[in-house]
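Appendix B, example 12.
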Amino acid sequence: MNSNQLNKVVNVNRVGGLIGLFGDSPQALLDNAVKKQNRLGYRVVQVIPANSGNILLFIFRFILLIITIFFYTTANGYYLILEKTESIEDSSLNQGGTLVTAKQEKPNVDDLFN
């Protein structure tokens, strides 16, 4: 039996400002993202804080915060490092010895965090 290792990185975004302060739960965001990826067959290898040191991003976030009267801005989230092992059974080989595989659909990006 052969196996095929698939890796994936998912960015979990957070909300800043007053909305993020009172309504954004990092634990709930991560929990929902992990559950969604588990349903797709992936398992979490590592969670990394997405610390961005970009000065232009900081300026953009500050301007957005001022424009929205401190209600909303983007915030640093997390990167989920995921992996999935797909087994290739010997029975999936046809008589000519070539591998017969099913076409894998890409997940809809909008469904990943709902």
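The chain has one domain: 2-111. The first helix runs from residue 17 to 23.
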